[in-house]
Structures are given as structure tokens and as C-alpha cells.
Amino acid sequence: MSEGTWLVVGLGNPGARYAGNRHNVGAMVVDELAARTSSRLTSHKARASAASVRIGTAPGGAPGPAAVIAVPSSYMNESGGPVKALMKFYSVDPDHLVVVHDELDIPAGDVRLKKGGGEGGHNGLRSISSALGTKDYLRVRVGIGRPPGRMDAADFVLRDFSSVERKELPFLVGDAADAVEAVVTDGLLAAQQRFHSPA
């Protein structure tokens, strides 16, 4: 992998009211990465909470690449400003940005990886692409499935995971954190082969 600091951003909305929402699963994944690295996110002037860590384990058992894990303190539709400010502060290039977010178009429980492409109506991604002037950053897409019946998608993502989903949530968050580590340590192609292969 190329040298340089990585920035891993988990998207969500701030505050206890939103903490358990499907829309906040990206932030949950960053919390899991913080736990894995025994680090604590602290307030950053870029309107975010962030921590400097080593992601995953490099070949030979050495600590993995240097990274900053972060959750914007802004609302989802204003994620671009904090992400751009963090990238500038830590001198991170777009090809070293990994955005972790909820994805309606992926079955609940699945994790998919890609670089670039559209935002699929996701306001957080739209804000980031607009602020950066590029869509060419890495995404770890955490599947939450489609809303049932005629429920509006906006209502669906702003609801907490159901009791059944909550039983599976630790596994989903863990898989997504594994995917982040794989992207950073092994590269996108190898990570895709691992996470996109039929189980």
C-alpha cells in the first residue's frame, strides 16, 4: 500500500437521540475501531471527534498503517466540512480517505466496498463529494436493507435498529470494522475479494 496517513470517517448524526439509528452505523464502526485500538475519540477543531491510531496488523505482526479515525460532530448533511478540514489538518489525500456509511441498496447484514461512484441519495456522501470536489474516495458500505412496506426511506434510516437487528448488529459492525482494516492494510481489490465473495 502507498505511504501516508489514512483517514477513516464514520458517518452519523450527533447526540443521544440518534445514537442507535440505522443512519449512525458508520459512527458505530468507528467506535468499534477505537475499542480495537484502545483509543478514545476526543474533540477536534475540525468539528469532529478523532483519534490517531494504527489500523489492523501489518504483515509480520507489526502495527498497521497510521490512521486517524473520526466521527463528524455536524449533522449528516453537513459532513463535508469536517471531513475536508480533517484531511487538510492531517495532510490526507482523497485516495487515503475511507468513509463508512449506511447503505439502503445493500441487504441488511452485508458489507460492500468501492471507490468513487454515485452517492445513491445519501446526504452525507453528497456533502463530502461536494466539499472535496471529487467522488474518488473509498467507501465501506454497511447494508441496512430497504424499508418495509411503504415506509419512507428517510424515516427508516432515522429509526433505531429493530430488536431482531440489534442481535445481529455487533456482527455487522465487526464485519465493517474488519473491512476497514482490510482496505487499509491489504488494498481495495484484496478487501473486495474477501468481503464480496459468497459465504
Main traits of this protein?
alpha/beta; Rossmann fold; 7-stranded mixed β-sheet; 7 strands; 36% helix; Pept_tRNA_hydro_sf; cytoplasm; Pept_tRNA_hydro_CS
Brief summary:
The protein has 6 helices and 7 strands, in the order βαβββαββαβααα. The mean pLDDT is 94. InterPro entries: Pept_tRNA_hydro (IPR001328), Pept_tRNA_hydro_CS (IPR018171), Pept_tRNA_hydro_sf (IPR036416).
Structure description:
- The chain has helices spanning 25-36, 80-90, 123-132, 153-157, 163-186, 188-196; strands spanning 6-10, 42-44, 48-54, 66-72, 97-103, 111-115, 138-143.
- With 199 residues, it is of the alpha/beta class.
- Strands 2-3-4-1-5-7-6 form a 7-stranded mixed sheet, with helices on both faces.
- Strand 2 and strand 3 (48-54) form a beta hairpin.
- It is globular, with a radius of gyration of 16 Å.
- The protein starts with 5 loop residues before the first strand and ends with a helix.
- The relative contact order is 0.20.
- The model has no long low-confidence stretch (mean pLDDT 94).
- One of its GO terms (cellular component) is cytoplasm.
- Its main location: cytoplasm.
